[in-house]
Amino acid sequence: MSEQEAPQFSIEKLYLKDLSVEVPNAPQIYLERESPNVNIQLQTKAQGLGDGVYEVALTVTVTAKIEEKTVFLVEVGQAGIFRILNVPDENMEPLLSIACPNILFPYAREVVSDTVSRAGFAPVILQPVNFEGLYATRQAQEQQGVPPEASIQ
């Protein structure tokens, strides 16, 4: 196989695309002693930019609540630009849905932890995510006609 035909994958750029933090019940919420219930949602999105260049964005939304009262809400959009050449079409979706989010996740985890700490709360340390499992679940749901949901409790 010549070099021009060999599959190529490279990271062109990693960047923070979006960051939002809300503490809607401050300052009273800092007086609460009860531990909040934390909900984490993940979403990935990929788009072609042309000539084998793709942007993949991983959005992590962390919501902490005590009963119905929101303690904090953090949303991080970590993105990357990837150059992918000579990869068969059937391998593109798994590459964009599994490999790229695996690269982005550690950066998003760091931003979430740092942002929650800077907001005055104990850091939220995101556990590793099995993007391959999420992809397989989403594929199975699509085959059954069920809308996909990527939420981690």
Roughly how many Å apart are the termini?
45 Å
- Can you tell me the CATH topology? Bacterial Protein-export protein SecB
Total helical elements: 2
Low-confidence stretches: none
Q: Mean pLDDT, rounded to whole units? A: 91
**What's the main sheet like?**
5 strands, antiparallel
The domain tally reads 1
Strand order of the largest sheet: 1-4-3-2-5
Helix- and strand-based class?
alpha+beta
Give the class-level CATH name.
Answer: Alpha Beta
Q: What secondary-structure arrangement, pairings included, does this model have?
A:
Layout: E1 8-22, E2 37-50, E3 53-66, E4 69-85, H1 89-118, H2 131-144, E5 151-152
Can you describe this structure?
- This protein is α+β, with helices and mostly antiparallel strands and 153 residues long.
- 29% of the residues lie in helices and 41% in strands.
- It has helices at residues 89-118, 131-144; strands at residues 8-22, 37-50, 53-66, 69-85, 151-152.
- Strand 2 and strand 3 form a beta hairpin.
- It is elongated, with a radius of gyration of 18 Å.
- The model has no long low-confidence stretch (mean pLDDT 91).
